[in-house]
Amino acid sequence: MNRSLLRPSALLVLAFLWSQSSAALEADDLGGLVGFTIIASSSVKGEYAGVGPAAPVELDNGMIFELSTGFSTYTYRPRAIVFGKANADAAAQRSGDAAGQSMVYKLFVGNNLYEARRLR
Hints:
23% of the residues lie in helices and 33% in strands. The chain has three helices and eight strands. The strands form two sheets. Strands 1-6-7-8-4-3 form a six-stranded antiparallel beta sheet. Strands 2-5 form a two-stranded antiparallel sheet. The longest helix has 17 residues, at 3-19. The chain starts with a helix and ends with a strand.
């Protein structure tokens, strides 16, 4: 897959999502996505009333993540965009995450961008 095509598509998806909401996303949030690529688009399973920092977030596509920060919102099956990039930290590359990969993940859920660790 051509990665040069994915990065512009990431910006298009974010622009669309931002235009459809009351815009909690700011330019500072986009700066944190430099080098990331969209790797999945799915919905959070079931009713969603918020998550604590260590609570798992399960997506319809089977991916499960743990967010670095919690949030509180009520939404039924909010859309989640999964961003990923190779981890440049050699120690992290040796250990990998629970899915056996050495990736850094971010999730865009609703109007918020979160750092995440993939559990599955």
